[in-house]
Amino acid sequence: MSHKLPQPLPLVPRLDQIVLIAEEGISKIRCVRQRILQTITPDTATFSNVIRPRAELWNVIQAEQGMLWVLGYASPDDEVHNEIDKVRELMRRVNSEWMSEAPFFQLLKPATEKNELLDTEDQLWLKEDLLNHTRCGHGILSQEQIGHYLKLQNEIDMMRSKYAKNLRTEDSGIWFNVEDLDGVPSIHLESWKANEEFLGKKFVPFANGGTKLVLTYANNSKTRKRMYLADEKKVPENVQLFQDVIIQRDTQARKLGYTSHTAFRVERRAAKSVDWVQTFLYKLQEDLALHGTEELDLLKSRRRKHLQNQGITLENDDKFQPWDLKFYQRLAEEELDIDRYKISDTLIWHENVQVWSVWEKSKESNFVGYLYFDLIWRENKYQGCQNVTIENGMTQDTMDI
């Protein structure tokens, strides 16, 4: 069915527009906040005059702002990432400024206590807005303590950004003799860099699926072991960052009265409590352990058969090393005639980003939105699974902002 698109795609900004777009958004938000602070008092504060103006503004500017974060994850350009880093630092400073403002919290809290007749979405926005402020210490910490809390929060965010950048720019790997890579499809072998000084060697990167390909296809167990262990040790500077973030997050959560960072996070999740999550995981473990054991026994059996065909007998058949997992999973799936491409029918392999318009499957066939697929690895792209909301669905009147 042919559809007429009701709105254009969000624009992808040029390099020189990135910081300007962020600054323009900040300026608009600042103007609305200042107007609220200058004209509203705790006695007159309501959802309509404290929350709604900011919500409506965000509806207007969110697509531009959301596209900036997409570029931060997906752009192949170093210069773009440098500009996005400037935006992140700018937003950290501005958010600290805004979230430290006691006068705004003094309007927000009475607005939540007016018991206005609000629809579900407005109630949720009101609840989340208040939670944003209390999770920065308002109503719990002194103003000086709030400033210190937000300063440490910024430091955590900077460590997280550095951790992600280290992973994104990581370009190491291992040189292997070609014979050690026996079993890896030739199409991949040909794509890997050769050594001009030492013939017969190939450089296998950890990124771009290199590790997964070796673990899945290399017939030599020593090759798989070497690749697995080296991949696990990549980006060693992230170890200390990871530890520091964990410690600082726990400290921050306890300042606000939470028992742990887990309790802090669960508050915004569908799970009811930390105890509920733990009980759920224990129950999941009980339900899945038997199936896991059966699957492991299947893989051990497949390994035993594979090695016997090569005239190899294991001294300890009970041990199953992690670097052997993908290799024997593949052999077992081939034996069972499992087609992963049929299972993963939403996986799209294409050199370029694809954009799909999404419509309701109903008589009205209403437009839902746009869905971007960017699934192929490239340099400077975030390494791992990621989704970014560019713009939330909404209906709104024309606004003069």
UniProtKB/TrEMBL annotation:
Manner of cofactor binding, per the entry note: Binds 1 zinc ion.
Biological process, per Gene Ontology: peptide metabolic process; proteolysis
Regions annotated as coiled coil: none
Residues covered by the Peptidase M3A/M3B catalytic domain: 214-394
One Gene Ontology cellular component: mitochondrial intermembrane space
Superkingdom assignment: Eukaryota
This protein's UniProt keywords: Hydrolase, Metal-binding, Metalloprotease, Protease, Zinc
UniProt entry tagged with the keyword Protease: yes
Cofactor: Zn(2+)
Gene Ontology MF term list: metal ion binding; metalloendopeptidase activity
Gene3D superfamilies from the UniProt entry: 1.10.1370.40, Endopeptidase. Chain P, domain 1 (1.20.1050.40), Neurolysin, domain 3 (1.10.1370.10)
Similarity comment: Belongs to the peptidase M3 family.
Protein name: Peptidase M3A/M3B catalytic domain-containing protein
Naturally occurring in which organism (per UniProt): Parascedosporium putredinis
